[in-house]
Every structure is written in structure tokens, then in C-alpha cells.
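Sequence and structure are no longer studied apart. As an example, we show below a sequence and the C-alpha cells encoding its fold:
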Amino acid sequence: MPKEGALIIISSPSGGGKDVIISALLKKFNNSAKLITTTTRAPRSEDQDGVTYYFISKENFEEKIKNNEFVEYNFYTGNYYGTTKTELSDKIKNFDIVFTNIDVNGRRNLAKANIKNISIFLMPENLEDLKIRISRRGGLTATEVEQRLETAKQEITRANEYDFQVINKTGKLEETIDNVAKIITKHLST
């Protein structure tokens, strides 16, 4: 039986740096890939369908739920996000390391489904820095920023459910990337 790739979950609150860190890790680790999440949210200017996300309608997403096509999914800030069974299966078969940026509920759903993984939660240095990061993303009202900050507080309380927690200090991105890479390297060598 061929060896399956390692699934690495990187979670953080909104604005916590998970996408930037995963992008850097993809360059550090050979034969690695990122799971592409399916979502009903509208694409942002930097998004590319099939690269950053698979963008589908709410109706299409709900049809996939009925057909049991997701290994995990969540409803967050008015939109669905999920990982299809096909996407997970294809990536795990073809890559040594597979990264995903699912949230705390997605991680819990993967655990319930007994899908082996290494889970890492990126902690903000403090909530004020996180609020600044969320605000800088643009396209959010003050109310939406506050909603994301409230959600972040709830997510942070669940960081202890993860195998590892890493503080993503403002201005120390390379240090955070190195710390996460060391965790992955150590785990893969055991």
C-alpha cells in the first residue's frame, strides 16, 4: 500500500497569518501542496478559482452537503467553507505533505472523522495586534472587524485542542515560519 502524505492543519483567527505561513512552508518542503477549500464567499481581487478557493453557489454547496461530499465544512461569517473528500484523497495520495488552513470547527470535524493530522494553532501576540491585522485586510466594516475579533477570542480559547500552539509575533514572520517548519520536520522524522 502506498504511503499517504502527512496532513498538516494550520489554524488561526482571522488575520492570524495562516495563508502567508502556508505559502512559505510550501516553498520550504518539497512535494507539498495545499488543500483548496470550497466556499460560497465572493472572490476577492487576489483570488483565483481553483487556486485560492473553489468558488461555488450556496445552492451547489448545500447539494454537496446532501450528497455527503465533504469531509468537513463550516458556516462562517455568512458563507460556507469546506473540504471535499475528493480534494483530500487526491492530495494525500500525491504529496508528502498536505497543508490546510481550516478553522477550529474544521479541525474538530477531521478529528471526529479519524483523519490523521498534525494540528498547529497560530496564536496572536495580543488582541490589539490582531485587530490591526484584521482591519488592514480591507473590505470590512467596523462591525465586521469586531465580529471577527469576537470569533477570534472564542477560537483562541480552543487552541489547547491542537497538537501545537505557536505565537505569531508581529514583525517576526520568519521566526514563526521557522518554528512551524521545525515542528513539522521533527514530527515527520519520528
Summary: Strands lie at 6-11, 32-34, 37-39, 53-55, 70-76, 79-84, 97-100, 118-124, 164-168. The first strand starts at residue 6 and ends at 11.
